Every structure is written in structure tokens, then in C-alpha cells.
Amino acid sequence: MTTLTPENSLSVMRSASFILGKNKSPVDKCEWNSYFDENGHLAMSRDFISTNILERGLHPFVRAEAWKFLTGYYSWRSSHEDRLMVDSMRRKNYESLCKMYEKIQPLLENVHRNFMETRNVIACDIQRLYGKDHLGNVIVDKKRLEKILLLSYICNVEAEYQQGFHEMVMLFQLMVEHDHEIFWLFQFFLQKTEHSCVINIGVRKNLEMLNELITFLDPIFAEHLKGKGAGAVQSLFPWFCLFFQRAFKTFDDVWRLWEVLLTGKPCRNFQVLVAYCMLQMVRDQVLRESMVGDDILMACNNLIDLEADELISASCLVYADLIQRKDIPIYETPNTSDNTINQEKMN
């Protein structure tokens, strides 16, 4: 286990201060290109790049390419030529999965009751999406989105489909152009974040860690939540299922947080610290008004139009406080080796 030291704390506090700095600018295309040599090999350390993403974020023109590295779609050790080959392979694999789905679809419809139910749920979820912007321009192709979600449900035996995935995949559709990119980026995103947004895998663990964190850092609030606020924390599962998507002011804010989660900076399970900071926003009101469970949940649900930079900065400061107090294993810095998806499970 990595030992967390006061030096780590100072570094995190500097990052938190920089995030809220007035003169910060995101990593733009020119700077991103400078991270690689003429053959496309990485010329900077991954730690350097990840720290810059934590502190400054990515310019929208860089995000589509950078996320392919952050998720593991591309290896950080690859060259330009390698990446062309990988992209071609991913396209072919996606097309093979589509053909497989077309062949087995009649069988699924006839003998797989869950398939029919899930397909109906996906269709209903997608219909509720706003597919146009304020000018009436189509921004989401719902048919493409439905196809990708169904394929993901059939192929990803770990995550399957849960309500809310349609909103997440929509953001990938807005980021990249091709269906195979959308599909694979979403699969890699789930794996890179350790299926943390999946109810039966990571969400329960996140809620347990959040309870532990509140007990450790804020015993007074924890005692209230165990009494009058019984069940309030467990009711916050939508935060993790959507990675706080509905709490932010813009899609850019959502992408800003998600790319920080993908870096593994400043620590593993950073989403739990984010949730803790959001709870702290309602803490004083909850204690002052002696709120009960449902009222606490309503107050939490009213946390909207947040700014990612402020929330990331606050979460970094909580982490700095944590590692000065005690070495807690669940916030250990993760292994930074390439995260390559198990394609056998996906085929």
C-alpha cells in the first residue's frame, strides 16, 4: 500500500489552489501535441500530464483524443502508427459485434425475457432525452444511441444496462464522431473507473466508503445521519450512478470531473470525496433545521448548477486533510499501468 505523506498533502493543496486560480487555462491542442514526439510517442511523464488535467482540465478540442488515452482505448506507449492500427481494430471488432447481435436478436426476442424488458426500458429512457438544442438543432441521434446501448447490454456481462446509462452514453456521442468510438470509450470508461457507477458493483461500495468518511471527518454530522437522517446517505445512489451528471451547470463541467476521475488524481475513489463535499454544502442546514431522511434527500437533490472546478478543488482539500490525519487504504493512489479491457469478455 502506498504511504501517504505530508508532502503529498502540500502537493494536493497547491493543486486545489491552482484549480481555482483566475489565470488558469485548459490544456489546448498545441500543448497536448507537445506532449508527444514526432513519431507520436509520449515525451512527457503520465504523472505530469495527469496533474495538468487535474489542475487545469482539457480544452474541448483536445478532449476526444485525450480521453482515448485516459480510458485505455489507446496505450500511452503507442506511436501514431500504432494508434491507427488500434482504431482500425476497434472499428472491426465493433462491426463484428453488430453482426453477431443481428444474428442472435431473433433468439433473444423469443427466449430471453430480460432482453425484451431491457430493450423497452432503453427505448423509454431515450425518448425522455432532449435531442435538440435551444435553436432546434439535433444534437443527439437517438437511434444510434439505442443501438449502442443495446449492444453494450448484450456484450458487457458485468454492467449490463441500468437506467441512467443513456445519459452517460449521450455525452460520449457528443464528444466523438463514430459509433465504434462511442461504444468502446464507454466500455473502457466503466472499466477504468472500476464500474464505480454500476449499482451491483461499485455504487454500494461508494456509499459504504462515504459513510465511513463522514464518520471519520465529521462525527457530529454522522451521528445525526444515523438517527434522524437514517437512510439518507444510502438514498444518494443516483449521485454515483450518473457520476454527479445532474448536479452540474454544463456538460463541460461533467466532462471536467470525469476526466479527473480517469487520471486517478489525486487519489483512487475520488468520487467519494466529491460526494462528501456535496453533503457538506447542506450540512449546516440539516443540523440547524434538524432534518429527517426525506428532507435531507430533498436538500441534496436541490444541489444543481454546481461548477466542477470548485467541487474538484474542495475535494482535493478534503483529501489533503485526510492524508495529514491518517493513512486510509481506500484512498490509496492507484496503479498507473495501462488499463486494457478484457476483450474476451466483450466478445
Automatic annotation (TrEMBL):
InterPro entries: Rab-GAP-TBC_dom, Rab-GAP_TBC_sf. The keyword Cytoplasm applies. Residues 57-265 form the Rab-GAP TBC domain. GO terms for molecular function: actin binding; GTPase activator activity; small GTPase binding. It is found in: Cytoplasm, Cytoskeleton; Cytoplasmic vesicle, Secretory vesicle. Its main location: cytoplasm. GO terms for cellular component: acrosomal vesicle; cytoskeleton; sperm midpiece; transport vesicle. The keyword Cytoplasm applies. GO terms for biological process: sperm axoneme assembly; sperm mitochondrial sheath assembly. PROSITE patterns: TBC_RABGAP. It comes from the Eukaryota. Keywords: Cytoplasm, Cytoplasmic vesicle, Cytoskeleton, Differentiation, GTPase activation, Spermatogenesis. PANTHER family: TBC1 DOMAIN FAMILY MEMBER 21 (PTHR22957:SF489), TBC1 DOMAIN FAMILY MEMBER GTPASE-ACTIVATING PROTEIN (PTHR22957). This is TBC1 domain family member 21. The gene is TBC1D21.
